[in-house]
Amino acid sequence: RAAACTASNAAAVLGVDEGSCDAHFVMYSVEPVWQAPRESSFQKEWGVRHEMCGLASVMQGLPVIREHLASRHGVSLPQEVTVCEQGMYFVPHEHPLLQGTLFGDKNMSFPLAASPDALLAGPGFNVLIEVKCACPFKGGFDDGLWRWLPCARALSVDDICVNEFVQCQIQMLATGVPHCLLVRWSVKECKVLYVPFDGAWCKQMLIVLSQIVLAAVATNGKCPQFSSISGHDEFVRDTRERCSRLLEPCTVPNAKGWDGRRFLQR
Questions:
Q1: Cα separation of 197 and 202, whole Å?
Q2: Spatial separation of the C-alpha atoms in residues 86 and 264, rounded to whole Å
Q3: If we measure between CA atoms, which residue out of 208, 242, 55 comes closest to residue 132?
Q4: What CA–CA distances, in Å, run from 242 to 106, 163, 166, 246?
Q5: SS3 state of residue 33
Q6: Are 15 and 226 contacting, i.e. CB atoms less than 8 angstroms apart?
């Protein structure tokens, strides 16, 4: 995983957000580069620990999701589905969209990988599930304590951020599953957004990413100047525009959440 560009860090490597730094490009260094140990993050730990809340909310809200997919997206979700745990997937060199890019060259070792949270499988239909959990605690105060601020820490649930769009697209590219449900769970609410596979965007992404990887290799794993990458500005604008065109999410009941008075433990 450390040597691959994964779906979760691809947005930073592509430079479509403001979080890009040298640490995202260490795997492209020619010479050994010292890496500081990764510090644990309370927010990330919260997200990992509560993924099952998002998955349980999806299963509990299947009738709502099924109706939403049919009426808003023309997608038919089978009546009988099963949630399957997923592992790491690598996009094969032979994939048609990789041809003509750096990642389609069998002699190059620059893998693309993804690890979806789950797969919702039914007869003749599969859909990936990616869960995002908002941490209701906020730190950074002078006393060093964390405070319970669920409203302030809630995710923006009415649209999809660029990072999540990129992550979902690469997950679908790696697995060959053309549907993804982005689940945004918080202690207040749970919303589900449908993200379809966008092959045209993925092809352009692979062309831009090929240039970025070569630039990073040339600087021994440093963050490149994105302004020097051909077509990068247009790619970033196009990515954000595609995000804005996605339809609004549906709301499903929380399998474990806040009823307005307290944090329920059900």
A1: 9
A2: 28
A3: 55
A4: 31, 12, 11, 7
A5: coil
A6: yes
Other CB atoms within 10 Å distance of the CB of residue 31? 6
Please tell me the predicted confidence (pLDDT) of residue 186: 85
Alpha carbons 70 and 37: distance in angstroms, whole number = 46
* 78 C-beta neighbours (distance < 10 Å), count: 14
As given in the structure block, the two tokens for residue 36 are: 């500081």
Query: What does the alpha-carbon distance between residue 78 and residue 80 come to, in Å, rounded to a whole number?
Result: 5
pLDDT of 27 reads 79
Instruction: Assess contact for 46 and 58: CB atoms under 8 A.
Output: no
Q: Residue 113 is encoded by which pair of tokens?
A: 């990988």
Classify the C-alpha dihedral 94-95-101-103 as positive or negative: negative
Average pLDDT by stretches of 10, the chain with 266 residues: 78 86 79 54 80 92 96 95 94 94 86 94 95 80 70 52 94 97 89 96 96 91 91 95 90 71 41
Q: Which residues of 94-121 are buried (b: 16+ CB within 10 A; e: fewer)?
A: ebebbeebbbbeeeeebbbbbebbbbbb
Q: Which amino acid is at 168?
A: C
CA distances 77 to 15, 65, 67, 120, Å, are 35, 8, 9, 10
Alpha carbons 183 and 194: distance in angstroms, whole number: 9
